[in-house]
Amino acid sequence: MTAAAPLLFQPFKLAGLTLPNRAVVSPMCMYSSVGGLANEFHLVHLGQFALAGAGLIFTEAAAVSPEGRISPEDLGLWGDNHIVPLGRVTDFVHAQGGRIGIQLAHAGRKASTYAPWRGRGAVLPEQGGWTVIGPDDQPFSDTFPVPSAMTEADIHRVTADFVAATQRAVMAGFDAVEIHAAHGYLLHQFLSPLANSRTDSYGGSFENRTRFLLEVVRGVRAVWPMHLPLFVRISATDWAEGGWDTAQSMALAALLDREGVDAMDISSGGLTTAQQIPVGPAFQTPMAAQIKGVVPDLAVMTVGLIDTPELAERILQAGEADLIALGRPFLRDPHWVQSAAAALGVAPQQVNQYARSGR
Fold first, then answer.
1. Distance in angstroms (rounded) separating the CA atoms of residues 34 and 38
2. Where are the domains of the chain?
3. What's the CATH superfamily of 9-358?
4. Radius of gyration over alpha carbons of the chain, in Å?
5. Which residues have a Cβ under 8 Å from the Cβ of 267 and sit 6 or more positions away?
6. For the chain, is the Cβ count within 10 Å smaller at the N or the C terminus?
7. Which residues are annotated as catalytic?
8. Does the model's pTM come out above 0.85?
9. Can you tell me the distance from the alpha carbon of 284 to that of 306, in angstroms, rounded to the nearest whole number?
10. 86-136: per-residue pLDDT in tens?
């Protein structure tokens, strides 16, 4: 690529990892695991994006603890038996010249629920469900499980689970790790006053509500190789009065920058049923731009209804973000990168087997 090439197709360096382009496959739950194990579905699903030239591929949320799964069918990385099946996926992606990251997560009070096509609300214990945990005993909604309020020992245990999962991610051959602190899951629950009514050192003030996430980040950063990028995904706002908001996200970004985070993935919402989201094309990008303004040395990734390569390129050219994460566009067209290249007038590298598609 020349300097005149569209920014979407210019390489981007994160820590010691160079991405061939700025199009990222966003983490998307597939609800297709048994016992948290990756299988042939994950190999084919994630492998197709490497064949098609995505700059970076993220797995779906992988639970760091069994009780941290959103559904019984979620991917996991809480046990050593998860390493080899995920290693098959990373080996395939690397063989195609691709880069792949894993999103580490704990669902907290939004755990033990049905996969979307299986039902709604809580999965009962007799149907494979379990007791869930959260900052306090507030459920997400009337149909979701009622959580048990976490003790400080629980908090320290889950922090250790994130660290152990990160060590497994190293062994499985991942190029990047993302800590999931968005969409109303456990770390986001601690951040938001709407889900965190604690009166100890993990609740109340901004400093206390961010404490759990920062402890997880420090633990993960200590065992994740410095030459590989560490992402954190946040919901920049709850879209609800009295909740987590963009001003707090900007303050958090400055803290994460000092903790050695390499990139922030800016999404929004998911914390409360009272949210009022003004959905539209690239509706979350202005928040990404605000955060980038306070942490210019930190890479920022934007996501959310960025369906066209022209819109993605405009965001990059305006300096509002460094990376473009796409979910549904990649589901609709796994070869979105190739289609985007044609639309922007460039010819990105392709695996040899697919090279004749451009002729």
1. 8
2. 9-358
3. Aldolase class I (3.20.20.70)
4. 19
5. 182, 183, 233, 234, 235, 236, 284, 303, 304
6. C
7. 185
8. yes
9. 10
10. 999 999 999 999 999 999 999 999 999 999 999 999 999 899 999 999 999
